[in-house]
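To whoever picks this up:

The parser on our side crashed when reading a file containing two proteins. I've narrowed it down to the boundary between the first structure block and the second sequence. Both blocks are reproduced below exactly, byte for byte. First block:
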Amino acid sequence: MRRSPSLRNAYLILGAGFSCLALLLTAALVISVVWLAELSANLRRTIGGDRAAMEIEFQLIRAGRSHQIFRETGDPRWKQDADESEARLVEELDRARSLPKSPEAAEAFARLDATVEALRRNVLDAPPGQGVARRRDFLVADADAKNYLDVIEANADTTLDHAEAWSRIAIILAAFTVLVVFLSLALVTLFARRVIYYPIVRLRHGLEGHARDQSIRVPEAGPIEVQAIGADVNRLFDRLAAQRDHQLTFLASVAHDLRNPMTALRTSAQLAERRAETDGQRRQAERLMRQIDRMNRLVEDLLDVSRIEAGRFELDFATTDLREVVRDTCDLYEEVSEIHEVRCSVPDRPVCVSADATRISQVLGNLVSNAIKYSPEGGPVDVRLMTTDRWAILEVEDRGLGIPEEDRAAVFEAFRRSKAAEEGIPGVGLGLSVALRLVRAHHGEIEVESDVGVGSTFRVRLPLADAEASA
């Protein structure tokens, strides 16, 4: 069995990997910088040696020319110029001697230095009348100077080649570093999405699915920490489901126990209504009948919830014209309240759906009953039937208390009521929960729009039957 990763271990591995990668890249960059600095220093030294070699060659030529003219003319100015050239020559030799050199450059400089020393001794510093015969030393010295210059320039070319090579290496290394960084970020992103993000998203989807269907559980997948969260959430869901089952079982038992007494009470109320001799007795009997009917609806809601939760709820689907359902519901509630006006609006053509007509009547009746109940000051209650290309739409609109925004998400939950409706209005919060389950059993949707103090509109969407049945 494959072991799930741990976020802690994953972060440690990623941290260690990035640290090693950073060390390797840093070492490579440091080596490149050191080599480039060394090459730059070599290039500067080479350029210095090249300048010295060119100056030595120039001063040799100048000294030779000035010495020759002085020997021929005896003009002291040329003697002075020859001495200045010799002094500059000695100075450049000393500077070149102090510069670091390659073995080839050192050998070429040694020959040049020896040649110049012989030239100075035999020609430049020779007594008058003896230096002309040794002018060939100028030619030898000039050849050695050119050879030294050639060696220096060859070294400069080699250094430049090395510098260019290392520059290319540095560029490649920089590009490789950028590529590695981007690839690493991409891998980390993919790892985070696969190991962290997707399990959390699935966990969130599981929570959202549980809000719609309480049988859904969140997946226990992903890192160990996310698995632990999922397991804890599922255990919590299981405990809540067990508590809800115990609650519904108890309520179902109570509802079953209440049915027989309620039947007896209804029979007695009907008998009292038939035997009433005065209008007062008749009104009391009617009021008693309404309360008994309300209690019967509550008992039936309790039984419906228990059947739905237990999976023993069956529907008798048939092609149904919703216009008849709307008209019957409006007729039923038309005289329930003297301060409410139930207004009905249906299209001229049949609106056919595949549904259990009794259960759809139950849903619509529940919505109309709530509209009357939560409009304590009275007013119109509009019941409308409309159609779109795919849906039949039932709307029940009241001008009552309205539902606060913070309570709308829970209004369809069992035993949940709006805080504004809990004071002075009877009910236990089962009607809308049953309506939601019945509508979903018909593959439909139910929603609410509401403004506090203005009223509420409940909207039920049911899929239309085929075009032939709707025509």
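<<boundary where parser fails>>
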Amino acid sequence: MKKNLLGAFFALLLSITANAQCSQYPTLSLGNDTLLCQGQSLSLAVPAGYDSYTWNVAPGNQPSVTITTPTTLILNVANFTQNLVVNGDFEAGDTGFTTGYAYGTSPAIGGILWDESTYAITTNPNLVHSSFFTCSDVGTTGPGNMMVVNGSIIPNTNVWSQTINIDPNTNYSFSAWVTSMENISAAHVSVLQFFINGIQIGPVFSPSLNGCDWQQFSQIWNSGVSTSAIISIVAQVSSGNNDFAIDNITFNTACVQTDTIVVSYDPNTIDAGANVAFCQNEPQSVTATANYANPSFTWETGATTPTITPTASGWYTVSAVSPSGSGCVLRDSVNVNITLMPWGFDTVVAQPTSCGTNNGAVYTLVHGPFVGQPIYTWNGPGANNPNQINASVWQNLGAGWYYIDVQNQGCHRRDSILVTTLNPPIAQFSANPTSGYGPLTVDMTNTSSNSSDFQWFFGNGNTANVNDLSSQQQVYDTVGSYTIVLVATNGNCSDTTSIVVNVIPPPIPPVTVPVGIIVPNIFTPNGDHVNDLFTFELLNIKSLNVTIVNRWGNPVNVSNTVPFAWDGKDASGNLVDEGVYFYKYTAKGAQDEDLEGQGFLQMFK
């Protein structure tokens, strides 16, 4: 138990020491979580006072980032003490490290590193191998030395190693710069691993495939209980051409800080709609929508409806306040392109055609300006007639409607006009009467014009051909409908009209059904079966209501049955007293005639 307590105390002491060591550096803070409105962005810069920094949303050591989408943003920063690596920049030459490579001594013309598994400390790779590029080192502080390596044929060869005394439970930053010696393929690039105390730190690393393109490997490492660090760089590949250079190896105490903020966006959006293009004479509307219910829109034109009809080209912006309570003003824009049409019809003219011939014509006159030449298209007669001509004038036409379309820049103006017939015949007549019982005599008066040739079709099989306006007469005997047709002709032209005459069946005289009610005035309900019942004699009566009252006006019998009969008893079944009684009735006959009556009757026992 004492040992455990001492261990916990020692760990706490180390933590206090580390915190005190890093307290000289500013505390990292990116601020509070942020809610942005749609379309906004957030730019954040690394605060001053840090030696190294990385964002989780951007590669490399970028001093600032701009956020345009919902993101959990993480910034890692570090401050480093003095480099603990001895001669990490090789400015002191071939000293301070161990290696599994041999120093190059080849006598070949190509240089001292002509042999594999050799290295040299030099200011220029090309000086030690004629195939290597001329490269400068990273951050020269002296002669500009670097360690240049001709790759080993033995895999996992130690390239560089150094042992450093360290403090336990302390964060350290390890970094090294590596470059290829020439432009190579991925199959021949060097593959390096970095170890501390025999344990790999970070991923397997390869430099760029381009020669002299220095790339940095860096990793944060915590010493735990270790008091020394054996740092090793190991080459993994044994194939040829895995040649590289190393420079600026550093190992520093690292004060690492991390801060995170959440950048979110108001989820509500509005959409001004798709961009539109249309001609000036065919306006279109644009409609704003939202991804939430009951939006309240305001267009920059001042309109507050979802739909507007633009009258000029340009961008139209709509806005709405988000209902989320964020205060965001949502905006979107739509582009409207209206093709102006400063041209149109001056006149559209038709010349009539002679009766029975095709010598009519149509033409149009327009005013500009136009872009290029306008395109004219006439079609007709009739809107759907495929006959057409591409010209402003169309001749040799028959009667009918003709339609003109003028096009320019993809926009159209349209009009129509009627080609009429000169002095066409007009068929017209009257008939009197047009309805009645047969035999029905009908007189027809011809009021046609522009014609002296008439054909009559009377609908009863009779016809007539006349050359004047003489009246006609026909007799129609049989019940039915007869269509009288008049055809008026003038040369090759004709006109037709008609009137329908109806011969109706004669009326059927009504049948009268006699009705009647005979009421006796005395009866004797004494049980002798002679005149024991007070009854009505009915003739074609279908309903009857009878009320009998005594001399004081009290009802003694009420009946609505057909036939009617009273046996002289009241509602309790008792025979009423002798005397005078009053009766009243209403009735309906077989043809719903209304009948009514009243009177006195004498009852004797």
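After patching the parser it read the second block fine. The first strand starts at residue 34 and ends at 36. The longest helix spans residues 2-22.
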